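User: quick one, fold this
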Amino acid sequence: MKKLIHVVGAIIVNENDEIFCALRSSKMTLPNLWEFPGGKIEKDETPTQALYREIHEEFNCTIQVGQKVEDTTYEYENFIVRLETYKAKLLDGFPVLSEHADAKWVKRDYLHTLNFAPADIPAVNKIISEKLNEMM
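Assistant:
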């Protein structure tokens, strides 16, 4: 039986309607794939608390977590991931890389040009078809 990992991802939108995307490093699971940054939900944490903590730990900035965008379960070769993605906006600081290989702000219409991790793709498709900042 494969391990189920419950994770959250932040779809951080800036004032230019650009979305923050992070490239997983070669040392991470699912190396060299783009993702909406976030991480595992720890015991007794809500998805919102986990997302707030993960963004602060990995990017040294503070976010406000908004509405849920997508809830996807995807079976990889060695594990199953449940990814909950949420709209978010920066409250304090600017993302600084500590674990990821790269990051960039991408216009919604260009998200499909990045090689996203499979679990992120349903959220990518939803974002492309909707205007997130209207929903914030």
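User: anything notable?
Assistant: The chain has a mean pLDDT of 92.
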